[in-house]
Amino acid sequence: MSNGLPYKTVWVEYPDIEALCKKIGAPPTATKPDGSSFYTLPVIFDPTTNTAVSDSILIAEYLDKTYPDTPKLLPVGTRPLQRAFLDAYNPISSPVFQFALPATHKILRPASQPYFRLHREKLFGKTFEELVPTGAARDVEWAKVKDGFNVVDGWLQASKEDGPYALGQTPGFVDFFIGARLTWFRLVFGEDSEEWKDITSWNEGRWAAFAEGLKKYEAVDL
Amino acid sequence: MSNGLPYKTVWVEYPDIEALCKKIGAPPTATKPDGSSFYTLPVIFDPTTNTAVSDSILIAEYLDKTYPDTPKLLPVGTRPLQRAFLDAYNPISSPVFQFALPATHKILRPASQPYFRLHREKLFGKTFEELVPTGAARDVEWAKVKDGFNVVDGWLQASKEDGPYALGQTPGFVDFFIGARLTWFRLVFGEDSEEWKDITSWNEGRWAAFAEGLKKYEAVDL
């Protein structure tokens, strides 16, 4: 990646996340129903300051603050707006989970599959086989996915003249949040899937262009 | 108002809105269930360009574009974010309506009261007397109002170092949107009401300061 900070990506299997976070001092991001700590990725460890940071938006805040001369993900004048954006985005983008989580399970490494299945199925109270809609229900639920994309497209149309991103010409945190979702869908559904072909055809090809524009920021060993 | 555009405020009674909009060529902002046009305020008429504009965010866009040397409400890099902010704000701020609409009815001029009652009661399927919560339900519903303020407070805390507003030091469109709500509550509940005292005590006095900071922009003959 150009004009940013040097970094090395470490891929971690689900059952190893908690032990790694504890080892490097990355704090938990939530509390489980039983009261114990819940550790999630992404996490960074910055050897320059000997600091571990958890939670993507806190990581972005940390990097913006610690390295003020690099590109900003949360520029002054957009921080509360980007938090509100995520609160608006999350519910309207949730119908895709019933499709994407079972598809994700299939492409995970064997070491991560049982953990992923156990915890996600508990969350939804359904097996992955029950979760993914079929027949007529599939069309209804997939239409909800499309509705969500339409809402975000409506927001982005407000900046037609400014640039392709929520923050205009230069992507901000919420743009990478959307971009990460698109990368997720491309990887788990597959480039040649009906799902990915649908998504990239919606909103006059906005999502294909959006994903393409952010590709240069992807970790090279993805 | 300083360093802005000269303007004159015209107050319009509810039954006169549609005829006035048609007269000055201000387009409707929505369609009624029966298919006919629905006209709402605010509306501006700009004699310099002979243009009428309806809908507050479209008015802000028009003014930003037509008068580029005046303060911007929708700066480049914030437009989709501000639209998403409104979509996140609207559902979490809706529990206040059951309190504020009946209170509004009481302070309207007689010419507006029957229209306001008819249309709002139709929307909720309840009379104003049924809509406003009493007894134990009041505490439950008022707590929901407070929950909504807490969410917005959480967003604004992300800019503690940047300034008091969603856009930082200088208020943007969404800040005036929140400010207009606060003015509404102050006027219909009353400065000495329990409701206004509650609101201005929440979130370490954020809303009292927020309203005070925006007071200089209020129409002087309010």
CATH topology of the largest domain in chain A, by name, is: Glutathione S-transferase Yfyf (Class Pi), Chain A, domain 2
> Largest interface, with Cβ-Cβ < 8 Å?
A-B, 29 and 29 residues
What's the total number of strands of chain A?
A: 4
State the CATH architecture of the largest domain in chain A. Up-down Bundle
Number of spatially distinct domains of chain A: 2
Quaternary structure annotation: homodimer
In whole angstroms, the N-to-C terminal distance of chain A is: 13 Å
The CATH class assignment of the largest domain in chain A is: Mainly Alpha
Element string of chain A (H = helix, E = strand): HEEEEHHHHHHHHH
Cross-sheet strand order for the largest sheet of chain A: 1-2
Share of helical residues of chain A: 40-55%
Q: Which structural class do the helices and strands of chain A define?
A: mainly alpha
Strand content of chain A: 5-15%
Question: How would you describe this structure in keywords?
Answer:
homodimer; 222 residues; mainly alpha; Glutaredoxin; Glutathione S-transferase Yfyf (Class Pi), Chain A, domain 2; two-stranded antiparallel ribbon; 10 helices
